[in-house]
Amino acid sequence: MQNFMNSQDPLSLDRIRSVLVRLEDTIIFSLIERSQFAHNPRCYVKGGISALKDQGFDGSWLQWFLKETETFQAKARRFTSPDETPFTAELPEPILPSLNYPKILHPNTINVNPSIMFFYVHNFVPRITHAATLSVAAANRARGIMGEGEFDDDGNYGSAATIDVEILQAISKRVHYGKFVSESKFQAHPSDFIPHILKPNRKALEALITKPEVERALLARLRKKAALYARELDMRGDPLETEVQTNGQLDSADKAQKAAGKGVFRVDVDTVEQLYENYIIPLTKEVEVDYLLQRLKGLSEEEITALQSSR
Ligand SMILES: C=C(O[C@@H]1C=C(C(=O)O)C=C[C@H]1O)C(=O)O
């Protein structure tokens, strides 16, 4: 991440892109970790875990996990940092005084976490947990358990939600970094952007911020990393002995994987690439455009004219 308190040039596009590259590692490793556990769909629906009613909480298990986690993090001042965006609506004030971060971004109201949560729950989780869910199904059938609800649930609700929160916060940071990317590109050529902000034109702004060669290189790098990291984790030996929660032995599916020299950390390279291509990159670009559309808010005509003539 960036230390905004003493960063030499926080808006250097190279420095910003290096943060995005490092976030790839966090996201891929966390997706691989999540792939060990079954889908556990009851964790993503309101009332799916009845114990929460006793806590007076009527959301899903994952929403409760996020609220509890972010409540502590808010007290520790996490969300005063310009690169942090919470999922939870109401959070307590920090117990520490605010740090005087340098003013890097223009004031804005952008928070696309509801979209990130939606596509994570409906598109990410089922795909990255597919192999583990099949293993649980085989183990349950072997124990005579038939019928829905038992086939995609291994009981690892705490472990899975802990990783879900890590993934959601990493994706949120990555997508909202689009604000820094946009500020950097705007400052480099304000006169390119200003006409399409004054007369809002999302298509023109998206064309200006889109760098196809950067996206192509990123997707190629992702495929290599996803394959390498999954193999690395398996070569450490322990995951192959991961006991699924059903007291299962390594079931036939896992034994087949082991025999084929593949591991239990089965995250599919195509899945990682498509999650970026279909969700993370497009959402990042929407944040870039949304930010640009708010970039002149509060500026006087003189300030805008000065920007237009600056570069
Ligand atoms: C993040 C940038 O802006 C856009 C979004 C990208 C992404 O989400 O990976 C990559 C290139 C651009 O199309 C950038 O220029 O680095």
UniProtKB/TrEMBL annotation:
One of its GO terms (biological process) is tyrosine biosynthetic process. Residues 158-288 form the Chorismate mutase domain. Pathway: Metabolic intermediate biosynthesis; prephenate biosynthesis; prephenate from chorismate: step 1/1. Keywords: Amino-acid biosynthesis, Aromatic amino acid biosynthesis, Cytoplasm, Isomerase, Phenylalanine biosynthesis, Tyrosine biosynthesis. It comes from the Eukaryota. Its EC number is 5.4.99.5. The keyword Cell cycle does not apply. It is found in: Cytoplasm. It catalyses: chorismate = prephenate. GO terms for molecular function: chorismate mutase activity. One of its GO terms (cellular component) is cytoplasm. This is Chorismate mutase.
